[in-house]
Design goal:
Length: about 190
């Protein structure tokens, strides 16, 4: 797929530009991966200014973890990338003002892992069996985390709809670019 048509934002060209561009440095990617872009939109919508904040990104995937860490760095946030094998993971998470959970483990992050007032973006989508029924849960134990966090995204219904919205935004932008018409600010 041509980088100009890479509305998912996964092409090495777009990922490379994301990794090499910071505030005022290098050229930005043609398209930012949709889930990380949606996460940043949710952070802005929650009224959180990442500048100077400490963030922990749980997960190191090329689809979510690495791109969202880069986007946060570009916003002058201090970022720690962590994963399921990180030593003293609860202690690492407890330092964060902003927690992005994209590790792929159902209900792994507990409320007592969180700094009081932290903003939590739960990217996980896990199918589990509970009480003989299938259920979707995130990477965070929502019930315990919502008692500590100032804001937390639900699963389902949080990051997923933002991902779709960002995919549609990228699609409109790509179509406009292909037709040579002005790209609207979306």
């Amino acid at each position: 797929v041509s980088p100009a048509k890479d509305v998912d934002g996964f092409h090495p060209f777009n990922l490379g530009r994301l990794l090499s561009a910071g505030k005022g440095e290098g050229k930005p990617p043609l398209f930012v991966a949709c889930t990380p872009a949606g996460i940043m939109a949710l952070i802005r919508e929650a009224g959180v200014d990442p500048r100077g904040k400490e963030a922990v990104v749980l997960g190191r995937s090329v689809i979510v973890g690495k791109p969202v860490a880069q986007l946060l760095l570009a916003e002058n946030c201090t970022v720690t990338s962590a994963h399921s094998k990180t030593k003293d993971l609860p202690g690492v998470v407890r330092r964060a003002d902003l927690v992005i959970a994209a590790v792929g483990r159902p209900e792994m992050v507990k409320g007592d892992w969180l700094k009081p007032g932290a903003t939590v973006i739960d990217v996980g989508i896990n199918h589990i069996e509970r009480d003989g029924k299938g259920k979707l849960v995130g990477d965070c134990d929502y019930a315990s985390c919502e008692k500590v966090a100032s804001a937390i995204t639900p699963v389902p219904g949080g990051v997923g709809p933002m991902t779709i919205a960002c995919l549609l935004r990228n699609t409109v932008r790509a179509a406009c670019a292909q037709k040579g018409i002005a790209i609207p600010e979306l």
